[in-house]
């Protein structure tokens, strides 16, 4: 079963990396705002979630406590969306994104404290290496100075939220299936985000994006891949210690780097980032550190 959860986690990381690359292209060139883009996400989340919760409904004997944790998880997922985008908006993404990558370490702390999970010292060191290696890939030429004002604070809050979501979902998956959890969270997140259509500016921005059929189709397809990755993550979390699943999925930025490099070769006009020799060497070093950390996590 251990091999299965690793495959689930790596497949989820790959799909998330694929959606990250697509998101950057769509948001950078085709979708007028983040608000409009989140509506596409909400439409997919709500539709797929409604289907899943119909096919895999909540168990009749589900306790109110478990239901409350599921509701809390959905709220945190929604909050993470806005914390991430608000953080990026308030400061250079290169200077605030490293703070997000502490979430595997926070997950380890929370899982130990609240779930009683225990990992070996070697595995714990592996988690630290993954966090350090992934953070290395966020380095930019202008420096690694973190913006200690609102940007970094918001991104740290996002990291805390992701860690809390991981631990809550591990607890909830003792009582419901991954399909039920994904369906319930999808419907809740969809309702919460679609409620922002009550604001005129959100409606106008979404109308502009939706008026471009190819862009709308690409955005919906991208978010559908995100839902598949969520299902894979849920199965991985159900099958293994969440403190070990988190650092494996955290290899996502390394996969984004690889996909971005490939995109630069295949379609140069869509290149996301131009890599100099020095930056490439630093990112390669980060990837090697992540690989070493992942190997220790799986030892």
Detailed description of the structure:
The protein is built from 13 helices and no strands. The protein has 299 residues and is mainly α. The protein has one domain. It starts with a helix and ends with a helix. Mean pLDDT is 83; it is low at 142-148.
Summarize the structure.
With 299 residues, the protein is mostly helical.
Quickly give the structural class: mainly alpha
Q: Outline, from the CA principal axes? A: globular
Low-confidence parts, pLDDT < 50 over ≥5 residues?
142-148
**Helix residue percentage:** over 70%
Largest sheet descriptor: none
Number of helices, counting only DSSP H or I runs of 4 residues or more: 13
Terminus-to-terminus distance: 15 Å
What is the mean predicted local confidence, pLDDT?
A: 83
Features:
299 residues, mainly alpha, 13 helices, 78% helix, globular
Please describe the topology of this protein:
Blueprint: H1 2-29, H2 34-55, H3 64-90, H4 93-96, H5 103-115, H6 121-136, H7 150-172, H8 178-194, H9 200-210, H10 213-239, H11 242-249, H12 252-266, H13 277-297
Helix pairs in contact: 1-10, 1-11, 1-12, 2-8, 2-9, 2-10, 3-7, 3-8, 5-6, 5-7, 5-11, 6-11, 6-13, 8-10, 10-11
